[in-house]
Design goal:
This protein is mainly alpha-helical. It folds into 2 domains: 85 residues, Orthogonal Bundle (Rna Polymerase Sigma Factor, Chain: A); 87 residues, Orthogonal Bundle (Arc Repressor Mutant, subunit A), CATH 1.10.10.10. It is built from 9 helices and no strands.
């Protein structure tokens, strides 16, 4: 079924929307959740919570790219679950390492209360990513959006893990310089 068809099912309040979403995007959502949480049960719960949030969001929202819409939902739910687990001393994923890597780029980022600054920074980061060669952009997004480990990225790209680590460091340094040039305090 097409994304448009699935979204129409949500708008019609047809429960088949959940089944079709799971058939088409279940593995995708699970992979995002599992890369963050490294726990099957928590990941399954986050995927189910994603379907519930999608159900409650459509209408009024009518996403054009259902995969991106669901990916953002499951990622946010999974990150929230990760924070809960961490406070309960149940962590164990790569998120701490990933956040540490990104600390070099944006260690003094504005807090979540400063929405305007965050939107501006988001726009600048998107501009930076658009100007990267495709292979470097894919590498960056796989690591920092999907939380893929270095080895998985290396395998996907057909290069060594060391090469991926070096390239990601270079990209982070370039991103940091790019943000500083644009007036962000990083």
């Amino acid at each position: 079924m097409t994304d448009e068809g699935i979204v129409s099912l949500y708008w019609d309040r047809d429960e088949q929307a959940i089944t079709e979403t799971d058939l088409k995007y279940g593995r995708y959502c699970f992979a995002i959740a599992y890369n963050i949480l490294c726990n099957k049960e928590d990941s399954d719960e986050c995927v189910n919570d994603t379907y519930n949030k999608a159900w409650n969001s459509m209408p009024p929202q009518r996403p054009v790219f259902l995969s991106a819409f669901l990916g953002k939902i499951v990622r946010n739910i999974s990150l929230n679950r990760y924070k809960e687990n961490k406070t309960q001393k149940r962590g164990g994923s790569q998120i701490e390492l990933i956040l540490d890597e990104l600390g070099d780029v944006a260690s003094d980022m504005p807090g979540p209360d400063d929405e305007m600054m965050m939107k501006q920074m988001e726009g600048a980061i998107n501009e930076f990513l658009r100007n990267l060669p495709e292979d470097k952009r894919v590498m960056f997004v796989r690591r920092y959006w999907y939380a893929d480990d270095i080895g998985a990225i290396a395998k996907r790209m057909g290069i060594s893990a060391n090469n991926v680590s070096v390239e990601l460091r270079r990209i982070r340094l370039k991103l940091r310089g790019f943000l500083i040039e644009r007036g962000f305090d990083v």
